[in-house]
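hi! just following up on the protien thing from before. the input was this:
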Amino acid sequence: MKTIKLVLKVLMTVFYVYAGVNHFLDPAFYLDIMPPYMPAHSAAVALSGVAEVLLGILLLWPRSQRLAAWGVIAMLIAYLPVHVHMLVHSDLYAEIPVLLLWFRFPMQAVLLLWAYWYTLGGDATARSA
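and the predicted 3d structure came back as:
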């Protein structure tokens, strides 16, 4: 189980680092999905990209794993208004199937639980570090 947890943590790191870097490679995509009532769209896109990269990397170190996982959880919760906005205004995102917009909610739950697993600090490495 320890090996599986480590492999999944590395996979999570790759996922968040890639997603964070993508905020800078394709900022127009993220700017397009920002709800209009949220302020400072460009800053929010940049900050969320930095947060994803930083939290993803911090997951790898036992001393910062728990805090980074809580940060990922907070970040995922903070992204919920974007998902709701896209679903409520699905007509603005005609290129994305509505079913996929609905699917994002259970996927968020999976991502939240996945991150929560790393807040538990159940491995000996995290406790001894």
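Residues 15 and 56 are 8 Å apart (CA to CA).
The chain has one domain: 2-121.
cheers
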